[in-house]
Amino acid sequence: MDTPLLEMRGISKRFPGVVALDRVSLSVGPGEVLALCGENGAGKSTLMKILGGVYRPEEGELLVDGKPVCIENVNDSMALGIGFIHQELNILDNLDIAANIFLGREPLIAPFQIIDRKKIHADTEPLLKRLGLNIPSTTLLRNLSIAQQQMVEIAKALSQKARIIIMDEPTSSLTLTETDCLLDLITGLRAEGVSIIYISHRLGEVSRCADRVEVLRDGKNAGGLSRSEINHDNIVAKMVGREIKNHRVPSEAKLTPGFLKVRNARSSRYPDQRVSFDAARGEILGFAGLVGAGRSEMMKAVVGLDEHGCAEVTLGEEFLVIRHAKDSIGNGIFLVPEDRRGEGLITAMSVRENTTLPSLGSYSTSGIISKARETVVAKEQIASLRIKTPGAESLVRNLSGGNQQKVAIGKWLAMGPKVLILDEPTRGIDVGAKAEIYRLVRTLANNGAVILIISSDMEEVLHLSDRIAVMHEGRITGVLEEADCNEQNVIQLAVGRSVAAAKPAFQ
Asked: CATH says 6-240 is which class?
């Protein structure tokens, strides 16, 4: 191999109570796609944040073009031609697309140093076109879906003309079409000599785009794979050091049909549409559809989180009045939202505090909260979900993205849900943790809970669901029984076409 474009040698990083990186090394050649794999908490994002100037290492050295460099901050990293697309979106939703892409790098008009808005919009348009985004550059970020916001982050890195682009879970919010577009873009960047460090738990994507794979486990190098060695089993073997059985967990539940009835659900996004469906006690009902189909918005209306939405909900024989989120929580209907940091967690608080926050009354006497009782429950969830954390008092913001997601799920599991709604439940979660969550979800269903799952991961929704309801532009286009659940039927319904095997959403 010629002189690598980038080398990281013996990098170590410690946080209170945990060694995040222990003498980790990697190298990337010009025009090479290096996939960086590992379980949640393995150190992938920490290593890349050192390269991106977010953290400073305690040991080790970095070389670019064979020369030692010092990266003190984000500006140093950008000056070296390193672009970073973070797993958690780094945007300002009150600004438009162009302003976000050129934030901190705005061209100015002399002599008054006024931002040249005309130029940044003109420079943004070809970037959006390159990514297949047919959206005006004047659109505010708050009006975009999470998937579209992710594409804006990618456009920002392209605008920097970076020599090395770090992509941390870049497709976790993208549709299949958008993912294909991104992988084609990576191929084009490689041909232009741009190097890519690609972090993803979607191993099929890794097999498609990577020239090499480097695996981290528990903050250390666990080995690498050449192009000819890259496959699902080889990657998993190095990631987890144990066999992961990716088998469907069979249902053992005694179904109670129609235990949950939702009628005339209306969201503010699709105010002219009404959604109705039934779900059985002990059933996992999947909700599939393209991004923008209205699945998340509909569920927020059901649980009282859409102030302009509404729904008629019956649980068992009881008709529920749900006007606010506290009404759904009081009736045992819980939602784990897609945006874990913005809506599902308070990251400045500890694992213990996040776990017990929705039900503090259960841990208090005369208004005084028992920290000891909170700690017992938090530790139970840490053990059950295998959350990688030094302890229950660790701040959630110091956990990896996947472990944050586990905390977001665990706080509702601790309350014994009657209905659990999971919106993109394994986004950013590694293959081992996915299998654990799948088993846990099935156990909840077997014990009598209704599970509603929204997922853009086709394999996941097919793997988990007893039935699949497919949505298109704010309405359910059909429901597939287990025997008819396949990718072709789901996609047909997702684009608004009819499928002979599809059933009505309710009887």
From this structure: alpha beta
DSSP 376: H
| Buried/exposed 182-221: b ≥16 CB within 10 Å, e otherwise | bbebbeebbeeebbbbbbbbbbebbbebbbbbbbbbebeb
How far apart are alpha carbons 30 and 431 in whole angstroms?
Answer: 30
* Strand ranges for 94-229 from DSSP E: 108-109, 114-115, 164-168, 195-199, 212-217, 220-225
On the question of a common fold for 6-240 and 246-332+420-507, the answer reads yes
CA 453 → CA 2, 52, 209, distances in Å?
A: 48, 35, 29
pLDDT (tens digit, 0 to 9) for every residue of the chain, 507 residues total?
A: 578 899 999 999 988 777 889 999 999 999 999 999 887 778 888 999 999 998 999 999 999 999 999 999 988 998 899 988 877 677 788 899 999 999 888 888 888 788 889 999 999 999 898 887 889 999 999 888 777 887 888 888 888 888 999 998 887 767 677 788 788 888 888 888 889 999 987 788 898 999 999 999 888 999 999 999 998 888 878 876 655 554 456 677 677 788 999 999 999 888 999 999 999 999 999 999 876 788 999 999 999 999 889 999 999 999 999 999 999 999 999 999 988 888 889 999 999 999 999 888 889 888 899 999 999 999 999 998 888 898 999 999 988 777 888 899 989 988 989 999 999 888 767 777 777 788 888 989 999 999 999 988 888 888 899 999 999 889 999 999 988 998 888 888 887 888 888 888 776
Class of domain 246-332+420-507: alpha beta
Look at residues 268, 328, 322, 307 and name the one whose alpha carbon lies nearest to residue 452: 328
Question: Which ranges of 176-306 would DSSP assign to H, the alpha helix?
Answer: 176-191, 203-209, 232-240, 295-302
Domains of the chain, residue spans: 6-240, 246-332+420-507, 346-416
One-letter amino acid for residue 326 of the chain: K
How many residues are present in the chain?
Answer: 507
| 170 prior amide bond cis, ω within 30 | no
Residues 6+ apart with CB under 8 A from 7: 25, 26, 27, 62, 63, 66
Instruction: Output the pTM of the full model.
Output: 0.64
